[in-house]
Write a structure and sequence with these properties.
elongated; four-stranded mixed beta sheet; alpha+beta
Length: 293
């Protein structure tokens, strides 16, 4: 299930092809992955000059060949230059999986029953930085736009993690970008898990938000704060008790608990620390969040 989750987020590049296969005759070039699936690699899917009729014939021939060989799922990555091939692929049984700025990913299931290919990406990772100074004040911001701006609430700086960015690094970056303050990661104090229905709109509907509050330590409490002009109306050190007594937090047990948890972790209790450790069984390393020891 973990492997399926990773593949769902990053696509077939994690499957690491084990062999190369081209359907007989004029079939499309492709690789066979470790799960007996197919990743189409033919240059035709990258070119604006690809003839639609020829592509349709080659795709049909390839699908028939792969099905006779007992292959399972097929991944088809069509560049935005070759967008005219999308209707053909859909007509031949492919379904949209996800889109990137320079390509569309589609899949087709050739195995029995319903598709067992991993689903499209469905989770956003957001971060907030809880920075407490020696006077028990919390670094807080007022946003220039969005729902929070309408209420004038003082809140924690934060935003979405970038692609391939660790949670700890994302929190430090967001605090720097929104307030100018340089900080060090201490621990994750809480993670909010929110699942969105139709009310989430086009962007959030059917998706999940993981909102991670990270306790950070200021490198220099006396550093001058410089709010991001495009996003932040103001940033200040706000006394913790004043922050949590705002009407928004009084009415929200969820967000109040997240602030209380962060305050406790900032005092030295609990929380998840970060470590980057090697896999051991293969090259590379990964970041983990673990109980502070």
């Amino acid at each position: 299930k973990m492997a399926a989750s990773l593949i769902g987020r990053f696509g077939p590049q994690l499957w690491r092809a084990s062999s190369t296969a081209t359907a007989a005759g004029k079939g499309l070039q492709a690789t066979i992955d470790r799960y007996n699936g197919v990743e189409i690699t033919d240059p035709a899917v990258e070119l604006a000059s690809t003839d639609p009729s020829s592509f349709k014939e080659r795709l049909r021939q390839s699908l028939a060949e792969w099905k006779s060989e007992g292959r399972k799922g097929v991944w088809l990555k069509i560049s935005t230059e070759a967008v005219h091939l999308l209707p053909i692929a859909v007509a031949e049984g492919f379904e949209p999986h996800h889109a990137e700025p320079k390509h569309f990913m589609l899949t087709a299931w050739l195995g029995p029953g319903t598709s067992r290919l991993p689903p499209q990406p469905h989770t956003y990772v957001g971060v907030a930085g809880f920075v407490l100074d020696s006077q028990q004040r919390v670094l807080a911001v007022q946003e220039r736009s969005g729902p929070a701006a309408a209420t004038g609430i003082w809140k924690l700086p934060g935003g979405l993690a970038d692609r391939a960015e660790n949670i700890a690094a994302a929190a430090v970056r967001e605090v720097r970008e929104e307030t100018g303050l340089e900080t060090e990661f201490v621990a994750v104090s809480s993670i909010q898990e929110a699942h969105h229905g139709a009310a989430g709109g086009h962007v959030r509907s059917g998706r999940t938000d993981l909102y991670c509050v990270c306790v950070l330590r200021p490198r220099d409490e006396k550093q001058v704060l410089t709010p991001c002009a495009a996003e932040i109306a103001a940033c200040e050190w706000v006394p913790y008790n004043q922050l949590v007594q705002q009407p928004f937090y009084v009415k929200s047990p969820l967000f109040a608990r997240m602030l209380q948890s962060a305050f406790t972790v900032a005092g030295g209790a609990g929380g998840l620390a970060q470590a980057v450790l090697p896999f051991g069984f293969r090259r590379g390393a990964a970041s983990i969040l673990h109980a502070r020891m």
